[in-house]
Model the fold of this input.
Amino acid sequence: MEVVTYLKIIGRYWWLVLLATLAATGMSAALSLTRAPSYSVQARVVAKPATSVLTTTNDLVSMVSEMSMRPVIGTFAQIFTSAEVKQAARAAVGLDEAEAKDYPLQANVLPDTTVIEVSAKGRNPQLLTDYLNATVDAAVARAPGLFGVIELQPLEQATLPEGPTSPVPSRDIPVGGGLGLALGILLAFGMEYLRTPRRVEYEPQIRSLVPNGIQTPPTLPQLPSSPQSLARDDMRVINGGQSQPRQQYLVPGRQHPLGWQNGTDPRADQMAQPGHKEDSFPG
Done:
């Protein structure tokens, strides 16, 4: 059971898992309680045809179809982060340029709409809200001068946030503890991996086949001699080409297929004569 094995590993290194969990939880709590809170606000603006310029229905319908093109609305989204609009918004709330860097602005077009969402982050919620609303007002006032036939209209102004977006101790501390627990379990598995010696694959099978770790060559079984084997007629060449027959091995009580009896070759006397040459040895 792999699950039981994993639980045993975690139980063996419970102190390491606990230490990692406590350390991560403590760090999350320290950061959440000591870091300065940050707030976030949003506002929405819609782009629409300028009714003061376009008076006929055909012109309005044509302009609506043109506004559905994303490059057109994306161009209007860039107005909110332009230097002119930022300068007008800073002057409206009494914010200098150095302090404005702590309140970054961002404008994005919502999918499949002509609505632009403007968001900002900062540490002072009241100043942040006023700065974003001043930015929206400045962008709306300058939008008609871009194309002349499209204008921006505020849909939703920024309101004072109820609480900080970060840090949130009730969210950050449990998340930090969970990450510490996961890290502790991974460390436990890593310690067990380093502690366990490497084993050769199929080692138990090899040890069962070879006792005491001594490898011996396999012994082949001896094949029994066949009683139906025929006699050999091998000749050994000696004395400059002369040959003499080797002893024939026949099965007792059996007759050779060529008619020899008791291992006697009828050609033996002829082959033993001086000057006789065997046909199978040319020259």
Remarks:
- Residues 2-35+168-195 form one domain.
- The first strand starts at residue 39 and ends at 49.
